[in-house]
């Protein structure tokens, strides 16, 4: 049985009702550094994205899930991206939207569920993530789940007039 349900949260597929939530997240300039975005998204484009979000990860090379509490309130999103079937790997991205909902274990629980799903049901050999050198909370989160820092990409992202370093972390399914 595939279970994406944890003690405090569960992961679910995107729904048409997520339009406002995703629009708010994608257009929050304070989050653009995390997603490497520099332009806003229209509701029209997000609606089109939602209409195609049901497609299989093997086809679109991405899986985006909503992190939801048991009262069905969307707290954030977690993604598998750059899904590479041949090499059995994918990147992981995670966001808990509201500052008040961070540091409460929701991200940790979501990441645990996604790791289990990735290794058990998708048969992946490895997961990786890219984290800004300054993002101590994300570094702590991914390290707590067994990810190891395997490299530093110097001057990797141009943010607010300056170049920032980015780490790459990796978790192998042994």
Widest sheet: strand ordering: 1-2-3-4-5-7-6
Proportion in β-strands: 35-45%
CATH top level class name:
Alpha Beta
Shape: globular
What's the CATH architecture? 3-Layer(aba) Sandwich
Return the structural class.
alpha+beta
Q: For the terminal residues, how far apart are their CA atoms? A: 22 Å
Total strand count, please?
7
Short description:
This is GNAT family N-acetyltransferase. With 174 residues, the chain is α+β, with helices and mostly antiparallel strands.
Question: What does it look like?
Answer:
This is GNAT family N-acetyltransferase. Pfam families: Acetyltransf_3. InterPro entries: Acyl_CoA_acyltransferase, GNAT_dom. The protein has 174 residues and is an alpha+beta fold. The chain has one domain (9-130): Aminopeptidase, CATH 3.40.630.30. 28% of the residues lie in helices and 35% in strands. It is built from six helices and seven strands, in the order βααααβββαβαββ. The chain has helices at residues 19-26, 32-35, 43-51, 57-60, 106-120, 136-144; strands spanning 9-13, 63-69, 74-84, 89-96, 126-132, 148-159, 162-172. It has a seven-stranded mixed β-sheet. A hairpin with a 2-residue loop joins strand 6 (148-159) and strand 7. Helix 1 packs across helix 3 (43-51). The model has no long low-confidence stretch (mean pLDDT 89).
């Amino acid at each position: 049985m595939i279970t994406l349900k944890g003690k405090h949260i569960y992961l679910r597929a995107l729904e048409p009702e997520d339009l406002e939530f995703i629009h708010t997240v994608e257009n929050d300039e304070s989050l653009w550094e995390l997603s490497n975005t520099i332009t806003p998204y229209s509701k029209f484009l997000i609606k089109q994205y939602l209409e195609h979000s049901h497609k299989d990860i093997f086809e679109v090379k991405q899986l985006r899930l909503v992190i939801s509490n048991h009262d069905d309130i969307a707290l954030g999103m977690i993604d598998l991206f750059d899904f590479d079937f041949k090499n059995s790997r994918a990147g992981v991205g995670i966001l808990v939207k509201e500052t008040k909902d961070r540091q409460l274990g929701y991200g940790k629980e979501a990441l645990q569920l996604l790791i289990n799903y990735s290794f058990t049901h998708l048969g992946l050999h490895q997961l990786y993530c890219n984290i800004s050198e300054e993002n101590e909370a994300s570094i702590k989160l991914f390290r707590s789940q067994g990810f190891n820092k395997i490299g530093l990409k110097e001057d990797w992202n141009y943010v607010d007039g300056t170049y920032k370093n980015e780490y790459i972390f990796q978790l192998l399914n042994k």
